[in-house]
Here is the input.
Amino acid sequence: MKRTEILGKLAPCGLDCSCCASFKGGPIARQSRTLLEALGDYQRMAQKMTAFFEPFAHFDSFQEILRFFADAKCDGCRSGGSRYPDCAAKSCFKEMKVDFCGECKEFPCSRNRYNEDLHKRWLANGEFIRTKGIESFYDMQAGKPRY
Ligand code: SF4
Ligand code: SF4
Here is the structure.
């Protein structure tokens, strides 16, 4: 995949915005819309199904969650979509004139305040990008769930 296409998918930290539950064009949003459409007016059926499988009593909540996913509106961190206050990378990459932290001369810097898990992922992503290049990194993580 070309770099310009990769930039439409991956955040500066290396995480895949295109697989995020809040990404408007992502598989979670698309498939939630498809499922809502396919379920149609399943509400009444769900009430009957409760006699066989108790979790159907919570069908309303399931549908609400699907609507939440289906209504995703984010264009990705690179477009300013993130409101995560502990992340500097989401805007800092512009200041540093790089596409990814792994391509930045200050990597690994101390500007982010990620939790331990995210910090480890950021380090691993950046190290991979730095040593093997963004195209190889994209191929390595493509198709994997983000969570
Ligand atoms: S908010 Fe920051 S850490 Fe989270 S995906 Fe965006 S760039 Fe990465
Ligand atoms: S200074 Fe840090 S947060 Fe900013 S682009 Fe470079 S590595 Fe990423």
The first helix runs from residue 3 to 7.
